[in-house]
């Protein structure tokens, strides 16, 4: 207890003191309240925009919407790459009252395996709130129908449709179209580097190979956005705005799928490649490499087992042989002859004695002809018709490697053709400089002789051969081979009606080859005409009785070296050391419309004329036969893209002939896969 | 003095008979009404929450009325024993208290749990005011020291629970009494110096890591935007995005979409600022200032040193509530658990506050009891 003292209190003084102190505190209170107000003024007025933005970025999320990938058609409007809907069954656990019971009931209804259910519950543990989880990623149509009828019983469970790439022709088009597959880390990094990552925010797959890869930017389209308001847990409250994606452009290729099918049939059971081109434009009409594989496998993510099977197959199905180098063998003789004429080493009348072999002066080595007893006296035409090696040994020797390689490079050998595929290889056009750079060794004259018959280090791709032949038949005009014919963009006008804008792709030409005398072209082309048309010439049997006027040149490339005095016998040589058969052809002889290059590996018997020649003929038969039927064909519209989800308003491409056959065989391919 | 009292008694109005100070009541009811609306918005527009809030408001008003009936000078008789019981209860809380939200604040007395620290908010100013008013003003140094010790005991006990917010309020309620009693400026300067010197020691040895983090967060909330900085960042976003006019009642996205934590309790000011903007904030602060000024007016016109000091302390403690809460929500002060008085959803603290206002009303209306 406090002490009880008698104190005389001065109440007035105390009251005054207290009043003073109260006044001071009141001032303090006002100052501090003003301080609060100033601080809030700073937040609400000075920094208003900053906090307004942050408040919006809290609540507004942009959900990316993937654009539909452009479709790919062949030159006649047959659909080659489609987007097909696949249906997945998804659940948002937060929207479901009893998740275990619901999963069980749905699984029972749609007979979903225990496995998938376990996977679902595992995924549920590590996902973000209000994100849907797949219970089944590829529902059948039946399951979709069954669920739709019963949907009202399952809140929070829904079917989601996504588009996936589908190649209806399977392995027939894989080497040209390539395929799309899931964007992996490497792709993501690359997109990031190129500043395209934002545009791919919602995209699942990217072109990995072929046309899909080369024209990725054209096919992909532009991302759209859905602007939604979300709460602090990420649940979507409402949609504020929607910017639709712009679908990628459709591509129409130069390929003719029917010709492609013939190419496949012609190569069945063989390893090799066919390239058919229109020499007037450089359009690739067919390009097929056998064996091939089904690109659809990669779209869904290929299994390790399937992939290693493809990798380990000794037939190397993953390689596009149309773009791989082969020794050109005698197919390059017309080009060498042209070089001889241009360099004035030979004339059409020059005669050479062929005893069956050729020897460098003063050296014992014999360079053999394919005909052991020789062709006797031969002129340039004879030499091409019968593919006489000795003639070309002599020509090569007199030309020398430098003149040869210079001219051959002008035809595009040893360089990329510039086709719209990234998988192209450039082959090898050997030269002194090339050998120095590659092997750091001098050039030997003997090697020049081998080059004279398209052997030695020389490799060309079937596509290069087709391109060089194009230049030859065009009298020096050089076309760039290409697969893309036109692009189609769908735009909407003010009334919202979709319009197609078709843009033909224009390709530049390369600098033409100018010869001192134009008749040299004709001399060589005439010899190639004889090769096919004259009885007994190397291409005669293959093209006997055609309705069109063809010309061509065969080639048999030695794969293994043969020792001096040794005889080559295909049957006794192990399979992978047997000769490759080559053939180049064009038709009609006057005003050519098609050039074909064929390479077939390790043929059992005979040379290019008997193995590759008939293959080239089948393509031409189809090509010219096609035109006859084409005149009376019925017009078929959108035959193949009935179930395309992307609503594409196509002007009907007129499409020729036996579409039934195509569909049937496409189906057959699917079954086989 | 007696003369004036008689005069006033003659002109006693109905409100005075009821021991209600009308201007103060109007201010309080204005804040409470506002509180009901903001709680409705902050609580996700649930009418149930408004009911339970309304119930507490009514209970608090009744408590205020009852307290207002007690003649204030009679508190003095009870000051010492109640203060001692209060201290014992605080010790008991530390020893046997109920743990809630990481702190021991509650004591279980069979039928209910209660917080002795809440009661100390009222007992401490009474105790100090009583002690100091025993001797003449201005207060002497020796008395100041004893008063300090009396304040420090409950403050430390409550800080130990730990309940920083309440211990701060209790310490300030005591210190305000000492200041109003005329502690010399020299002494105030020395004490301020000592406290400043004490801060580093407090920081290094006495503060718990989570308390330190709160202070660090104050200076740099962006350091841990999803952790310790989350409250203050979201709160500043809410206030800032309200702008001049606010987003409108029930339309604050920060609160309605639940980005703002503790939005109906300690952070209700952010909800209010987001929805009513700077205009609303200015009006709210003006109402608070009006209530405080009325409280200080009552203190200045009280007729005894004890009631003057008590009224001043209660009013200023109310101001500390306002300042600390708005300061922490708007990022000026570290986060300590202090509600926005009369607006925040919450029971105990509102009842204590209103009991305090009851005392103020008693001081304003009971004028015949003099020494």
Automatic annotation (TrEMBL), chain B:
Keywords: Cell inner membrane, Cell membrane, Cell shape, Cell wall biogenesis/degradation, Glycosyltransferase, Membrane, Peptidoglycan synthesis, Transferase, Transmembrane, Transmembrane helix. It comes from the Bacteria. The chain crosses the membrane at residues 20-42, 54-71, 78-99, 141-158, 164-182, 187-206, 276-297, 309-336, 342-363. Pathway: Cell wall biogenesis; peptidoglycan biosynthesis. Its main location: membrane. It holds the Pfam family FTSW_RODA_SPOVE. It catalyses: [GlcNAc-(1->4)-Mur2Ac(oyl-L-Ala-gamma-D-Glu-L-Lys-D-Ala-D-Ala)](n)-di-trans,octa-cis-undecaprenyl diphosphate + beta-D-GlcNAc-(1->4)-Mur2Ac(oyl-L-Ala-gamma-D-Glu-L-Lys-D-Ala-D-Ala)-di-trans,octa-cis-undecaprenyl diphosphate = [GlcNAc-(1->4)-Mur2Ac(oyl-L-Ala-gamma-D-Glu-L-Lys-D-Ala-D-Ala)](n+1)-di-trans,octa-cis-undecaprenyl diphosphate + di-trans,octa-cis-undecaprenyl diphosphate + H(+). It is a multi-pass membrane protein. Its EC number is 2.4.99.28. It is found in: Cell inner membrane; Membrane. Peptidoglycan polymerase that is essential for cell wall elongation. Belongs to the SEDS family. MrdB/RodA subfamily. This is Peptidoglycan glycosyltransferase MrdB. It comes from Colwellia asteriadis. The gene is rodA.
